[in-house]
């Protein structure tokens, strides 16, 4: 997308009310991402968050002049066409397509963020502030509800301690970004970063901790500022002290000490990975048994593959296996070609590059062991670094105006999710239901 320049170009636009409305919407969206988890019944489609996201994108597309490269559009349509085909043969077309709408709208969100980064210098700053306020609000909620929590494995707001850990991990990495900020804002962000890191360590979630380590390594490698590693170590020591101070102690799955004890006492790689090895093996086995490794099983395909009946962990908990269960090998290839060939990651260096690459590293590392991109809110978080990187990328020489195509697509997705607002994901094995049985 691009915007017609006015008298002062982007500087003029950044001072207009519409620019601040979009920034305010993004600020609220980041907070609504985690608020919506508990505020609304989980239906497998994240309908409330999707409706909010789609409404913001619809507003964005209407007021901006939406343009993409011709090659990008062709690659997108090829991938989207395959997704529609796979969902159509899944046996649950509308719910499957509504679930895949999360991914189909993902590139448009990345493109929108890239335009805001180019046109409004405050955009990265707003993302940091939204993460900081989120950390503080979550902390206040936990302090207020601590006495009523029976099992911290199922904490308030998130329902699952690993889900909580993934969110804290990403917020900490967002807060690692350096940029324009006044004195008190820097203090507020710094305190929020330490609190967020303390809550991440306190959760005992190993996958986001690994992601945070990877993000820190990327930041140190790409930054020449000598204070970065010193600051990371100082904040780590402070966060560790806080995590140990409030360590549950009697929980088998929560707490910094529990994280190390579970790792040290593991007798096999599968136990060390909290059953991920068996889960990945079962996923591949199900794809082969149902002969769905080529086409996948459509959106939320793991349900149709029967993975929901295998223990308490039902989702593949791996980015690539997730996409294989939904779209198969063909869909994964088409999606990869679209991402690589459309320029979504074709960038040149910018001041935001170390920060953005650290966030990307966090998602890719933690996403190998957890269900990060399965949750719509984490796709929203993931779009932030991709949008910032794209903002500094090369412009496509053959732009195509997709404004009304995007408007119609978003409107269709909105109507679909409204229609399925009462839908509830069915955890039963498909072969136990005559109406959904597969051959």
Span between termini: 45 Å
Number of domains: 1
Q: Characterize the biggest β-sheet.
A: 2 strands, antiparallel
What's the helical proportion of residues? 55-70%
| SS strand fraction | under 5%
Features:
65% helix; two-stranded antiparallel ribbon; 1% strand; mainly alpha; globular; disordered C terminus; 439 residues
Q: Can you tell me about this structure?
A:
The protein has 439 residues and is mostly helical. Helix content is 65%, strand content 1%. It contains 19 helices and two strands. The chain has a two-stranded antiparallel ribbon. Helix 4 runs antiparallel to helix 5, helix 8 runs antiparallel to helix 9 and helix 8 runs antiparallel to helix 17. It is globular. The N terminus and C terminus are likely disordered.
């Amino acid at each position: 997308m691009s915007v017609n320049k006015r008298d002062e170009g982007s500087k003029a636009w950044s001072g207009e009310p519409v620019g601040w409305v979009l920034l305010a919407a993004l600020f609220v969206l980041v907070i609504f991402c985690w608020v919506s988890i508990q505020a609304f019944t989980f239906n497998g489609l994240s309908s409330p968050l999707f409706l909010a996201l789609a409404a913001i994108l619809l507003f964005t597309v209407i007021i901006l002049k939406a343009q993409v490269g011709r090659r990008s559009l062709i690659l997108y349509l090829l991938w989207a066409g395959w997704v529609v085909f796979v969902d159509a043969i899944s046996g649950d077309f509308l719910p499957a397509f509504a679930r895949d709408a999360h991914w189909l709208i993902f590139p448009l969100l990345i493109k929108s963020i890239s335009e805001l980064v180019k046109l409004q210098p405050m955009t990265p700053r707003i993302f940091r502030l939204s993460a900081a306020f989120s950390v503080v609000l979550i902390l206040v909620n936990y302090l207020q509800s601590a006495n009523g929590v029976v099992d911290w494995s199922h904490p308030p707001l998130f329902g699952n301690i690993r889900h909580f850990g993934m969110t804290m991990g990403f917020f900490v990495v967002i807060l690692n970004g350096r940029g324009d900020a006044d004195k008190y804002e820097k203090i507020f962000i710094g305190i929020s970063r330490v609190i967020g890191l303390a809550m991440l360590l306190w959760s005992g979630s190993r996958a986001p901790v690994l992601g945070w380590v990877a993000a820190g390594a990327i930041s140190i490698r790409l930054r020449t500022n000598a204070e970065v590693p010193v600051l990371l170590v100082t904040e780590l020591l402070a966060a560790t002290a806080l995590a140990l101070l409030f360590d549950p102690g009697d929980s088998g799955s929560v707490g910094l000490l529990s994280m190390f004890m579970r790792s040290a006492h593991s007798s096999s790689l599968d136990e060390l990975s909290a059953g991920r090895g068996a889960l990945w093996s079962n996923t591949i086995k199900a794809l082969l048994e149902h002969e769905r490794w080529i086409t996948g099983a459509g959106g939320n395909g793991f349900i149709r593959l029967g993975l929901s009946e295998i223990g308490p962990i039902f989702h593949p908990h791996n980015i690539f296996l997730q996409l294989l269960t939904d779209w198969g090998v063909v869909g994964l290839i088409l999606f990869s070609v679209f991402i690589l060939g459309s320029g979504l990651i074709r960038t040149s260096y910018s001041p935001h590059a170390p920060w953005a690459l650290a966030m990307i590293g966090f998602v890719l590392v933690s996403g190998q062991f957890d269900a990060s991109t399965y949750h719509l809110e984490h796709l929203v978080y993931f779009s932030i670094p991709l949008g910032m990187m794209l903002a500094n990328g090369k412009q496509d020489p053959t732009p195509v105006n997709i404004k009304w195509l995007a408007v119609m697509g978003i409107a269709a997705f909105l109507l679909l999710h409204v229609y399925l607002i009462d839908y509830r994901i069915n955890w039963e094995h498909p072969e136990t239901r005559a109406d959904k049985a597969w051959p």
